[in-house]
From TrEMBL, chain A:
Coiled coil: none annotated. SUPFAM superfamilies: TPR-like. Residues 425-524 are annotated as: Disordered. This is Bardet-Biedl syndrome 4. The lineage of its organism: Eukaryota, Metazoa, Spiralia, Gnathifera, Rotifera. TPR repeats lie at residues 130-163, 164-197, 198-231, 266-299. It comes from the Eukaryota.
TrEMBL record, chain B:
Residues 1-33 are annotated as: Disordered. GO terms for cellular component: axoneme; BBSome; centrosome. It comes from the Eukaryota. This is Bardet-Biedl syndrome 1 N-terminal domain-containing protein. GO terms for molecular function: patched binding; smoothened binding. Residues 509-531 form the Bardet-Biedl syndrome 1 protein GAE domain. The lineage of its organism: Eukaryota, Metazoa, Spiralia, Gnathifera, Rotifera. Residues 1-10 have a biased composition (Basic and acidic residues). It comes from Adineta ricciae (Rotifer). Residues 11-33 have a biased composition (Polar residues). One of its GO terms (biological process) is non-motile cilium assembly. Residues 41-299 form the Bardet-Biedl syndrome 1 N-terminal domain.
Length: 524, 531
């Protein structure tokens, strides 16, 4: 078919009459950019397949098509191919946009040094591009060169003050360096600029939590959840607080949200298990904890909690085995040894129990609960009263220290003193609750609330992915458990004292105060 | 011409095939929210085989014949993948049925209904932008074609092609000269020269030059977006100008009566969406989202933007309410800014945004922005509150709200597969000014599926309570025995030369075994290497 090479379409009425070039080139090359807008729109909508088909049917490619093709490749995860195309674009046309894309692809491939070079090249073409500064900071953060990282994040924040991502990244760098105060200041500055950012508020809350400012922490988590009721890190953190003062039902209802979104999160299963535990649904608790253990077999606290629950259920052999697994994961975890001591003494293996207690005390000699359990163990195994006395005196000393250090007088479980009194070693006169009535102990009825501890582990992960933002599981309550039958023997503590007590190290909250606050926070 | 015909029939066949596919789509159970009583919308029309393929900027709701009944006008792409044989059409609908259609020469990029004269009755003309031209249709007949002004070409480049026509320059020399201009970067090259520079083989380049040397050298930009602006009065049917954004980073304001360029503005990047307000002769503002992820604000009398807002992502929609700008971004976020660039709020939506449109229902004073999402929902935001969610059957790729026929409030939607959905806002509908998503998220109602325990487990627990000590002893013994056995076997395998990395002195063969996973399922990789 002949083709008159006319530059303009012959008629807008008869497109079919438009000449078709015999060659592979269109008649009018001046308008090869005419579909760029459509590519841009399709890219924005995420129609990646259609873009690729569209580019394939084009008789001719233009630079923008290469660029979009590269973007599509990167969006679909073929980063190396994307990098090739972007590099081709840079060779053709070294603009800022192209250089930035090359640098970004390099960073995604983990080639941070080269990426930094590319970004620095980009900096020669612009001085106020937030993205360049921020990504430079991220690259240096990955290379653990924190001074440069901080410097670039600060520059990024100078360029654009509202960028949530830069505040979070800068805060993380500061946390990695151990500068908690500065990190908190940065997060708070960011939160002032982004008053609706759930991530920033969760970070502030976690920092407050670490300092045991539970009121502030809970308020921060509440704020985060107001703006995003499904923000998983905030839910996890808020539930820690809720669980900590023993409101398992509320925590459970919140955990359902995470369960619905991330049903394979071991941490959630652990916390759900501990909720059931405090609701005395032991079979459910064991089931959930076992699922957590299945999902994360190397998670220390899951094993520890499993041991705790089994000990409570008088399944001492299982408890001992789980504790051995826990110890195998962390050989310096004093509470595990202490609990192993309890389990072994119940299994009539007093030699090893003695060694477990001794090792636990060697690792942490200031844990009143371990000391108390040790004292009871010594009393049960007929050790000379002088030794028991020294143990119990140390217990009272540590207990008094803890009680003095606790901000809230109910942060420490006073029932430990009752048990000590029953054992025949009442607290020295200055200790306030020593004169409590010694009739019936209340501990078997009231289970210790599954605990929530400040999590230190998540601060040393620089990762950005949401999965790692899930706070680690709460270190479980260091409470050992009391079998109900033990309470009957309480009358004669010297002869056959309660072998192993439910000691509660976790802090108990003033329930009313918290209820009030919770009312405020709960969406109705 | 015969080949042409065959092509046509082929494409018709294709259409039929795709039509059948669409029909099977239609048979899906459609339990739209429209059916339940709580919905604020009536399903007026559902046609999943309408075969319309377009974007939001190519739809208009306008009273095309000044008869008091509003028509839907769509500039349809046809199938963009049948590229050289586009079947782009200008379609006019009257009350859900196709009234008339006109062929278009090229893929349309924007459609605007504008008033180009002061005659009575007020009959609007249709301006269709495609390629580098704007075609004006009056009474659905082609009336005028406005071509964007040509862009300056470097003199050296002109000379090179002039020499090429006369045949006194060779390919290599051409390449060198053009490459120099390109590297210098002062004046951009024409697309023709750029294509030439990309050619690797001299044979191909020679053919290219032969093909083009007699064609006039041109550098012409293309339209990327177009909107209208009132010329001298704020009346709805006042005389209009066209605001045209182009690929070469310009914004032109063109008078629609005689097509003279009234103003030219320079944009720092290629514009993608426009939003225009005001009156040209008095004061006007143009908001532009650009491909570099910025929103720029232009005002009357300024060549360059006054304000710039940095978005973290590419914009997929732009709407303006008074002094508020609402931008939907590719990272499924919806932002609200003031025209000064301060951010009011930001929402992260549950799915990527596919289309956006403004809802302005004057009789009730209801203003909102509708955001179509990739999860087949349309979210209506009034200020920062989500006031309604409409469920639809397919992804929506284009939307328009306004009058249609004699209805005051209709939402016209075009789906991904070419369907046309029209919904009418119920007259009784009221939108409460708080979040419909207020309250606990729906996941909170899900029951946690606690793994069940078997009777055997319970029996074992009971047994353990009674005989814990014995069980523990046996377990310990067995464990130690197992360890001993493992150790012995390991020793045996080391002695026999079967350890994971096995080396024998005589044979040059290495075996390396790796176990991945903890079991019960695991993967065993054995590498056998001849060194």
């Amino acid at each position: 078919m002949e083709t008159p090479t006319n530059a303009v379409p012959p008629s807008i009425l008869k497109p079919s009459a438009r000449s078709i070039a015999t060659s592979k080139w269109p008649n009018d090359p001046s308008t090869i950019d005419k579909y760029n807008w459509l590519l841009h729109v399709m890219y924005g909508r995420g129609e990646y397949d259609r873009i690729q088909q569209f580019i394939r049917v084009q008789p001719q490619t233009n630079p923008y098509m290469t660029y979009v093709q590269a973007l599509v490749n990167r969006q679909e995860g073929r980063i190396a191919e994307a990098l090739d195309l972007f590099q081709k674009s840079v060779v053709e046309n070294p603009t800022l946009v192209n250089i930035k894309q090359v640098a970004k692809s390099l960073a995604l491939l983990g080639r941070y040094r080269v990426a930094i070079d590319a970004y620095k090249e980009a900096l020669t073409r612009t001085t106020n591009d937030w993205e360049v500064f921020h990504n430079l900071g991220l690259c240096y953060m990955q290379l653990r060169e924190f001074n440069e990282a901080k410097q670039y994040f600060l520059q990024a924040l100078q360029v654009s003050e509202i960028q949530e991502a830069s505040y979070i990244a800068l805060g993380k760098v500061l946390l990695l360096e151990g500068e908690r105060d500065e990190a908190e200041a940065i997060f708070e500055r960011g939160a002032r600029r982004n008053p609706e950012s759930p991530t920033l508020f969760t970070h502030i809350g976690l920092l407050a939590f670490e300092r045991a400012h539970y009121t502030k922490a809970f308020e921060c988590f509440g704020t985060a959840l107001t703006f995003c009721p499904t923000h998983i890190p905030a839910i996890m953190a808020a539930c820690q607080v809720i669980q900590k003062h023993g409101d398992a039902d509320v925590a459970l209802s919140k955990y359902r949200i995470i369960y619905g979104r991330k049903p394979e999160c071991a941490q959630v299963w652990n916390n759900i298990g501990m909720c059931f535990f405090s609701k005395k649904k032991f079979v459910a608790a064991v089931s959930c904890l076992k699922r957590a253990n299945y999902l994360a077999p190397f998670e220390l606290y899951v094993l520890y909690n499993l041991a705790l629950v089994h000990l409570y259920l008088q399944q001492n052999a299982s408890a001992a085995i789980f504790l051995q697994s826990a110890i195998r994961i962390n050989r310096k975890h004093a509470p595990s040894y202490a609990l192993l001591g309890v389990a072994l003494s119940k299994l009539n293996d007093s030699d090893n129990a003695e060694r477990a207690y001794a090792y636990s005390l060697k690792l942490d000699s200031a844990d009143p609960m371990t000391l108390l359990n040790y004292g009871i163990f010594q009393a049960n195994t007929g050790v000379s009263p002088a030794k028991i006395n020294s143990t119990m005196q140390q217990f009272h000393r540590c207990y008094a220290e803890r009680a003095a250090a606790a901000a809230n007088p109910r942060d420490i479980d006073a029932s430990m003193l009752d048990v000590a009194t029953k054992l025949g070693y009442p607290a020295p006169p200055p200790a306030p609750p020593s004169d409590l009535p010694t009739e019936k102990l209340s501990f078997p009825s009231g289970l210790p609330p599954p605990p929530a501890f400040p999590f230190s582990t998540n601060s040393n992960r620089p990762a950005d992915d949401s999965a790692s933002n899930v706070p680690p599981p709460p270190p479980p309550s260091a409470s050992s458990t009391l079998s109900p039958s033990d309470s009957t023997k309480d009358d004669d503590p010297t002869k056959q004292s309660p072998p192993d007590e439910p000691e509660v190290k976790t802090k108990i909250y003033d329930a009313n105060r918290h209820k009030l606050r919770r009312m405020k926070q709960e969406p109705t | 011409m015969t080949s042409n015909k065959r092509d046509k029939s082929a494409s018709r066949q294709y259409q039929e095939i795709s039509g059948n596919e669409n029909e099977s789509d239609q048979t899906r159970p459609t339990t739209a929210a429209a059916n339940d009583a709580k919905s604020k919308w009536l399903a007026a029309h559902n046609d999943f085989v309408a075969g319309i393929n377009t974007v939001g900027t190519c739809m208009e709701l306008v009273d095309l014949f000044a008869e008091g009944s509003v028509n839907l006008v769509v500039a349809d792409f046809g199938n963009i993948l049948l590229m050289p044989k586009l079947q782009a059409k200008l379609k006019v609908f009257k009350s859900f049925s196709l009234l008339k259609e006109n062929n278009l020469s090229d893929l349309p990029c924007a459609l605007v209904a504008c008033y180009t004269d002061n005659l009575q009755p007020r009959i609007p003309a249709l301006a269709v932008a495609s390629g580098s031209a704007v075609f004006l249709f009056k009474s659905l007949r082609p009336y005028y074609k406005f071509v964007l002004p040509q862009i300056e070409i470097a003199q050296v480049e002109k000379d090179v092609w002039h020499k090429a026509r006369e045949g006194n320059i060779d390919i290599q020399a051409m390449h060198d000269v053009l490459n120099d201009i390109h590297r210098a970067g002062t004046v951009p090259l024409t697309p023709r020269s750029l294509t030439f520079l990309q050619m690797a083989k001299s044979n191909e380049a020679y053919q290219f030059v032969e093909h083009y040397k007699n064609v006039e050298l041109k550098r012409q930009s293309c339209v990327t977006c177009m909107k209208k602006l009132n010329k001298n009065s704020a009346d709805e049917d006042g005389l209009n100008c066209l605001v045209i954004g182009t690929e070469d980073q310009h914004i032109y304001i063109v008078e629609a009566e005689a097509f003279t360029i009234l103003a030219t503005m320079t944009c720092p990047a290629t514009p993608s969406f426009l939003e225009v307000s005001g009156v040209y002769d008095v004061e006007f503002r143009i908001l532009v989202t650009c491909r570099n992820g910025y929103v720029y604000l232009f005002r009357r009398g300024n060549q360059t933007p006054r304000n710039a807002i940095y978005l973290n992502s590419i914009a997929v929609g732009l709407e303006r309410f008074g002094k508020n700008i609402i931008v939907g971004c590719m990272d499924s976020s919806l932002h609200c800014y003031t025209t000064k660039g301060k951010r009011y709020w930001k929402h992260i939506l549950p799915a990527p945004i596919t289309a956006m449109c403004q809802i302005d229902y004057r009789p009730k004073g209801f203003q909102a922005v509708a955001v179509a999402l990739a999860n087949n929902e349309i979210h209506l935001y009034k200020d920062k509150f989500l006031v309604d969610v409409i469920q639809v059957e397919e992804n929506i790729y284009a939307m328009k709200f306004g009058k249609l026929g004699r209805e005051d409030a209709t939402l016209v939607m075009v789906t991904k597969n070419g369907g046309l959905i029209i919904k009418i806002l119920k007259r009784t509908a009221t939108f409460e000014e708080n979040d419909t998503l207020h309250g606990p998220p729906k996941e909170q109602q899900v029951k946690i599926d606690v793994p069940k325990r078997t009777k055997l487990y319970v029996d074992q627990t009971l047994r353990e309570k009674e005989q814990a000590e014995m069980m523990y002893r046996i377990f310990q013994q067995d464990l130690i025995r197992l360890k001993l056995l493992t150790g012995k076997e390991f020793l045996k395998s080391v002695q026999a030369g079967l350890n994971p990395v096995a080396k024998t002195k005589t044979e040059a063969i290495r075996i390396n075994a790796e176990v991945h996973g903890l079991g019960p399922r695991f993967k065993l990789t054995v590498k056998l290497q001849n060194t």
